[in-house]
Amino acid sequence: MTYHPRTLAPSHPRTLVTAVVTVLAGAGLAAQAPPILPSTTLVQAGRASLYPTVSLQDVGTDSNVYLDSVAPKEDFTYTLTPR
Fold it and tell me: According to DSSP H, which parts of 1-83 are helical?
């Protein structure tokens, strides 16, 4: 593509038309709509809202907590993680 030395515009009219149409088509687009979240907002500061959650993972029994082959100890384990 070559440019006109005075205007720095493309010398091909079809390229210019394509660029203008692309810019104008994107001008009408809006930002994404806000997500629909539950009405159980615990913390809200202006437009910012926090929806704290907790994750419970790895629930189960460990049959040898201390990796002792002579006298293994069993224990109940779980992982509770704030998100």
Answer: 13-27
